[in-house]
Write a structure and sequence with these properties.
Blueprint: H1 4-17, E1 27-28, E2 49-55, E3 58-63, E4 67-71, E5 76-80, E6 91-97, E7 100-106, E8 114-118, H2 125-128, H3 141-148, H4 155-160, H5 170-180, H6 193-214, H7 222-229, E9 248-250, E10 256-258
Antiparallel strand pairs: 1-6, 2-3, 3-4, 4-8, 5-7, 6-7, 9-10
Helix pairs in contact: 1-6, 3-6, 5-6
């Protein structure tokens, strides 16, 4: 699943390579990806891309005609000029751009990529309900405290709840909780002030360091760069790099990993 550091890197790449290019046309191979049936993708034909902005795990292509909001979901992604990732995914939409090509893909068993043609990106419900974004330089301890204080919900789920904090998914929530030395099963309401401060530091450091590390990586290499950087997520059965214990798998709706020693606190 793309998360905010990778989507931020993609936004920066497209800001450099796609802005000022004209969209020649939009070819859609899977009609279910279009969420605004009253606003067809043909509205963007001939439009010039004027900017790129990230909203959580979503991308906004600004043009002089309308906005194209790209919601990547669980398995959507993008590639530039035909560069294929090692696990090449089916192409859902193609946008020829004055001699370049932006392709939108989906590698899932069910379609998760969503495309919306709108005048205001915040008219897309998933964007309108987003919580504060830890990659925003203005994000502070008070934002984190409001997100978790009094919440009788497990921390793993809270971190992934987009209305609570924007941009965090399954992988980075594992990394954050490991760095914070907090149990994924602990409740937000049970955290004391020191634990909330520790969680704030882990959230901001983990995501901002990841965003900096992904900067400049081409889109088709971002997924493998993310996987290679994981210390806990996807490392079930391996040795914890901090304490040496064995990292465990927790199989639920989505598999996640944790260290039973580092994350033994409530």
């Amino acid at each position: 699943m793309p998360e905010s550091p990778e989507v931020q890197a993609l936004a920066e790449f497209l800001a450099e390579h796609a802005v000022s290019r004209r969209i020649e046309t939009v070819d859609l191979d899977e009609f279910r990806a279009l969420k605004t049936r009253d606003r067809p993708l043909t509205e963007l034909s001939g439009a010039t891309i004027t900017g790129v902005r990230r909203f959580g795990k979503h991308l906004d292509l600004q043009t002089d005609a309308a906005h194209l909001v790209i919601s990547f979901g669980r398995a959507g992604w993008a590639r530039w000029d035909g560069e294929a990732a090692p696990d090449e995914a089916p192409v859902i939409a193609r946008l020829p751009l004055d001699g370049a090509l932006l392709e939108l893909t989906d590698a899932g068993d069910w379609l998760s990529l969503g495309l919306s043609v709108v005048d205001d990106p915040l008219s897309v419900p998933a964007l309108a309900k987003l919580g504060p974004d830890p990659l925003d330089p203005a994000f502070g301890q008070a934002d984190l405290d409001r997100a978790v204080s009094g919440r009788r919900k497990q921390l793993k789920a809270l971190l992934q709840e987009q209305e609570t904090l924007a941009g965090i998914g399954n992988a980075y929530s594992d990394e954050i909780l490991h760095a914070a030395k907090l149990s994924p099963l602990g409740h937000g309401s049970a955290l004391d002030e020191g634990e909330r401060e520790r969680l704030f530091g882990a959230v901001t450091t983990t995501l901002r360091d990841a965003a900096a590390a992904r900067r400049g990586v081409p889109p088709h290499r971002l997924k493998e760069a993310k996987v290679a950087a994981m210390r806990v997520h996807g490392r079930g059965g391996q040795t914890c790099p901090v304490c040496g214990d064995t990292i465990l798998d927790h199989d639920a709706a989505a598999s996640w990993q944790y260290c039973p020693t580092c994350e033994a606190t409530r």
